[in-house]
């Protein structure tokens, strides 16, 4: 198994090209301060297969296997501790199933029909005077912002945008859009160009950063009593997020029994194809934090929660009185979990970003295209690997904070970024040449045996979805709450 020469000390990457899935799990597990003995509880069918499982030069299948296993093992660790320090129950995650779950939003069926994801009408890759930029148009405010930067009216077409972008240099358009224009657009770079940027140096070498914010009493919430078959039963989670990455983290906590309240804004549109998938296991409420009453309700929930997940830019919630300092004042044992594009450090820390944009600006799209050898300027990964990887890593970090809070006390902060997951995935190396593309893909439900799915009645009708890839010995793993329209529930906690 080979790798490219991009994973060298000169570019700041740790060389993990020889890492197995167990090596990855150990690397992250020890890095966030969890007991090494728990690693004996891993059962990983398919781990001996180190070849590609989805078509990519990057080791996406290995990352998926490690991410799902890390999340399950951290849940098992919490379960063992809350039950008096028993042996950590064995967890089982198969490689193929993990890779399939990394594509879950593309594979569900509603009333027997697999509906494709909404396609961007204005965004995507656009030519510039010296290359390309990728524009994100997932929300109306992003569309309005990029049209403003380009001097176009609201009814502009994709062709209108193309005529404008070709007159811009890529970096100039990126800078104007992201720094001054509140848009989401990034230049297509090579890995070498990315490595030369200060932001690339500001991203840590581990995908999870965990730190204690303030000291406090050790122990559990009274709701986290023993003798449960659900590892996170009694854990209260407020999730303020949209799209994929942060919602994956909340969905992962919910599959292990946490009470997750997904808070979305009534000012943003629904994203039906994504919201249906990532609301599994959650209750859903809508609050407008610009309104005094809604903000008061959110703060009330935060004061009585265990975990606060937010998927917005670093410091963007501070102007609403939701800085880490204010949150700790409100709740002295809170776990604050942040999911961002570029992390809390570096000149790009305040920039908007999404999976596709991080792939674009970091050299992933260019490197994928070069390895595929089809003459493309850019090729995207076969799934939202940065989104999914970051979501599972954030859930792992949260559960590590739950464990360490019980043992050490205090308030904790977890930081995970799309760029951090990108950097870690890149450090695993790449398959040589086009070898990584010599495999089948899971593009349709028909490509996957029925045993990987489960069917439930939801607020949208009968829904068949990818079953969770992890199991924990002696525990019930699964979603108890099914998807429903946003804002369907009350802003209150379940009794426990």
Q: List low-confidence stretches.
A: 1-8
Number of strands: 16
- The CATH superfamily is known as Crotonobetainyl-coa:carnitine coa-transferase, domain 1
CATH architecture: 3-Layer(aba) Sandwich
- The CATH class is identified as Alpha Beta
Radius of gyration: 22 Å
Q: How much helix, percentage-wise, in residues?
A: 25-40%
Any idea how many domains? 1
Structure, described:
InterPro entries: CoA-transferase_III, CoA-Trfase_fam_III, CoA-Trfase_III_dom_1_sf. GO terms for molecular function: catalytic activity. The protein has 496 residues and is an alpha/beta fold. It has one domain: Rossmann fold (3-Layer(aba) Sandwich). The chain has 16 helices and 16 strands. The chain is globular, with a radius of gyration of 22 Å. The model is unreliable at 1-8 (pLDDT under 50).
């Amino acid at each position: 198994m080979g790798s490219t020469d991009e994973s060298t000390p000169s570019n700041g990457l740790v060389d993990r090209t020889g890492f197995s899935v167990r090596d990855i799990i150990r690397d992250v597990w020890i890095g966030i301060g969890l007991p090494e003995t728990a690693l004996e509880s891993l059962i990983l069918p398919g781990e001996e297969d180190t070849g590609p499982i989805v078509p990519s030069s990057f080791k996406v299948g290995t990352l998926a296997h490690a991410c799902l296993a890390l999340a399950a093992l951290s849940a098992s660790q919490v379960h063992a501790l809350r039950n008096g320090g028993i042996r950590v129950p064995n967890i089982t995650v198969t490689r193929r199933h993990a890779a399939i779950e990394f594509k879950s939003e593309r594979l569900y069926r509603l009333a027997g029909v697999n509906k494709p994801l909404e396609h961007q009408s204005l965004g995507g890759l656009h030519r510039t005077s010296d290359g390309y930029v990728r524009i994100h148009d997932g929300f109306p405010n992003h569309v309005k912002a990029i049209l403003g930067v380009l001097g176009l009216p609201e009814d502009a077409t994709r062709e209108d945008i193309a005529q404008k972008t070709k007159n811009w240099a890529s970096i100039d358009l990126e800078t104007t859009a992201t720094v001054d224009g509140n848009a989401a657009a990034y230049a297509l770079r090579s890995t070498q160009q990315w490595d030369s940027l200060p932001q690339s140096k500001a991203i840590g070498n581990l995908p999870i950063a965990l730190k204690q914010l303030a000291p406090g009493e050790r122990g559990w919430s009274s709701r986290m009593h023993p003798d449960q078959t659900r590892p996170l039963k009694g854990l209260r989670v407020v999730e303020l997020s949209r799209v994929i990455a942060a919602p994956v983290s909340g969905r992962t906590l919910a599959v292990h029994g946490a009470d997750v309240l997904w808070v979305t804004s009534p000012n943003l549109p629904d994203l039906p194809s994504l919201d249906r998938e990532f609301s599994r296991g959650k209750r859903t409420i809508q609050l407008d934090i610009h309104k005094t009453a809604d903000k008061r309700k959110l703060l009330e929930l935060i004061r009585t929660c265990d975990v606060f997940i937010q998927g917005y830019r670093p410091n963007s919630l501070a102007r609403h009185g939701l800085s880490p300092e204010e949150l700790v004042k409100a709740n002295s044992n809170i776990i604050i979990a942040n999911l961002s594009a570029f992390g809390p450090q570096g000149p790009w820390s305040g920039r908007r970003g999404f999976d596709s944009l991080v792939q674009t600006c970091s050299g992933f799209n260019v490197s994928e295209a070069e390895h595929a050898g089809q003459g493309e300027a850019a090729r995207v990964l076969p799934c939202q690997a940065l989104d999914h990887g970051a979501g599972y890593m954030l859930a792992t970090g949260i559960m590590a904070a739950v464990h360490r809070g019980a043992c050490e006390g205090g308030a904790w902060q977890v930081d995970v970024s799309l760029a951090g997951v990108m950097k870690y995935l890149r450090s695993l190396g790449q398959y040589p040449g086009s070898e990584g593309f010599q495999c089948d893909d899971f593009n349709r439900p028909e490509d996957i045996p029925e045993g990987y799915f489960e069917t439930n009645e939801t607020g949208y009708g009968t829904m068949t979805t990818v079953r969770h890839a992890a199991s924990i010995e002696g525990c019930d793993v699964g979603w108890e709450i099914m998807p429903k329209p946003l804002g369907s529930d009350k802003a209150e906690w379940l009794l426990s």
